[in-house]
Write a structure and sequence with these properties.
11 helices; 0% strand
């Protein structure tokens, strides 16, 4: 059975959102008992759309593509006509991306949460045979990703305040080890690992582990933490391998 808070202690949505940060055990007990997920999903979509739209306005995808083109070693071997055609193509792509990319979180945010919850279902329902439903896992995942709201607000602030030429879309915040490494002299594999050592990522892993431990009731927090961390480590290794192939 799911944990059931007493009627007088049931939380509203505002209470859930606040207590995920202040009293996560109580928040996840309520979430597991009544696994609703629309509010965090909508908030995550709104912040993602807002941060990408802010980036499109203040920095622009044309600047990103120009930076990528300048760092492309093949550019040195191109003729003036080839460079002109490439710049024209990138300008058209940047114009389209300015509209498409900010709207993409409407699909990518719920899809990402579904995939993560599906992985957790494989780990905790199939491999560990715990008594936790997919609906509970999806609700826990949705609330467990709420630190991304703070990251999104911080990203918007950085975009607005920072010199657009100095903004790094792949690593906008200095809350991971990779932010302190030189991307020009550091190997892509090492940079991939370094950027994965991230404060917000560890925060979410801890919240997800606590939420699943509370929902499954008899599951120890240490087991839940291992269950959410191992898939993440596998993802980091795959990501690092792909980065190594790119040099």
């Amino acid at each position: 059975m799911s944990p059931e808070p007493s009627p007088d202690r049931r939380m509203g949505e505002a209470g859930r959102l606040i207590n995920v940060f202040l009293d996560p055990r109580a928040a996840f007990a309520d979430i597991a008992a009544r696994p609703r997920f629309w509010v965090p999903v909508v908030l995550l979509i709104i912040l993602s759309v807002g941060s990408l739209a802010t980036f499109s306005y203040y920095v622009g995808w044309d600047r990103v593509m120009q930076q990528q083109m300048e760092s492309n070693p093949q550019l040195q071997n191109m003729s003036a006509d080839q460079r002109a055609r490439m710049e024209e193509t990138q300008a058209r792509m940047a114009s389209v991306m300015g509209y498409v990319v900010p709207a993409s979180p409407i699909l990518t945010v719920p899809l990402t949460l579904l995939i993560v919850a599906g992985v957790f279902a494989l780990v905790f329902r199939v491999l560990l045979a715990t008594d936790v439903s997919f609906r509970q896992l999806f609700a826990v995942t949705s609330y467990g990703f709420l630190p991304d709201l703070i990251a999104g607000l911080a990203t918007i602030a950085v975009v607005v305040l920072k010199d657009p030429d100095q903004f790094n879309l792949e690593n906008p915040l200095a809350f991971n080890v990779g932010a302190y490494l030189d991307p020009e002299s550091t190997s892509k594999a090492l940079l991939s690992i370094a950027t994965s050592i991230d404060l917000f990522t560890f925060w979410k892993l801890g919240l997800l582990a606590m939420g699943i431990a509370v929902a499954a009731r008899k599951l120890a927090f240490s087991t839940a933490l291992a269950g959410v961390s191992i898939p993440w480590l596998i993802w980091v290794l795959l990501k690092t391998g792909l980065a190594a192939l790119r040099g």
